[in-house]
Amino acid sequence: MSVATTSPTAVETSASATPSPTGTTVGIDADAVAKRIAGISRQGIGSSGVAVVTETGATVAGRGSGKALAPASTMKILTTLAALDTLGADHTFSTKVVREPGGRVVLVGGGDPLLTDKASTSVAQPASLEALARTTAAALKASGVKKVSLGYDDSLFTGPDFNPAWTKKWHTFLARVSPLTVGEGLYNPWQADQKPARTAADAFAQRLEARGITVTKVAPATASDAATELASVQSAPLSTIVARTLRLSDNHAAEVLARHVAIAAGEEPSFTGATSAVKAWLVAHDLWDDGMRLVDGSGLSSRSRVTPSVLARAVALSLDTESLASVAASLPVAGKSGTLKDRFNDASERIGRGNVHAKTGTLPGIGALAGYLTTQDGTRLVFAVMANDGVGQTTTQNFLDRTAAALVRCGCAA
Asked: Which CATH architecture has domain 8-87+243-408?
């Protein structure tokens, strides 16, 4: 492994950088951490930044920690924190069926990003159209109804369902952001459903037919205030949805959660309203730096900008706040789970396997890694490392993983 020419004295430490208002670096050798960061080659990396903080958010060391860079999917850390704090870890989303005074039945999307057609055994996906149809059919038969016209209401969200800032060629395989989807809005991993609400309604109609209810028509509708509820199914608790979103880096779920933050904040549930609401939450929690910009909730846009300092302090906030703990607890583990299962796989990185807990971020020419680890001498460090304009994905990921592995090797106790 080549060694960067950057000297340790050029690396930010807790003595020169502005520390977070909370926490202390007592017991941590900041110079030792700085030397570890300085020793990682940046060859092939265009722009980069590294931030290391304590579990309580106090600055330890960094290199370009205040540089605003494209976060890719590490953006999901910020979105899920805002959702947990705004809605609560036990919050659930309801998909319901209502009956209008004229007899029409309407399937109403409530923004459950993990709603399924067939009942699932996954704890993250307890709500299904199969279960909803069963209770709906029973309620209709109990009132003597065996034939209905079915409407579907996906009006909970507004604005475009595909972000104009996303790469246009992704249009065929990125799920549309909708409050009424099944199968996460995908036909398969390579093909997105262009009309997810209609697909969900058609699937629900088939489920009703299987239960002895004839469906004469399926069409868009908006449930009225005069409608009465026939049946509903509840999503998993938000903490469980967050865990899955982070582990699998679920873009659609992240965008849906960002819209729920917007609704709770009184903003328009669109890309614009969602990013505005998440930004307001970040600002209120001292997690906003100059140069930052949010374009979406998932990190799919390369136009968003976040600093390594904010990402690291966001992870620290989760570690230090019980109500937000599910974010840190759900981060993939190097060599073990989620998007880190196949990472930290060469000799210089393997020490991080089973130790580094972090969210990945990957876009063409862009990489990021943010999480926490334990050093050789038992010191817990929280970190974020970002790289933009890299020469290739392998080079970029090696830079990220080797930085984290170097911190694991650190004898950082003061």
From this structure: 3-Layer(aba) Sandwich (3.40)
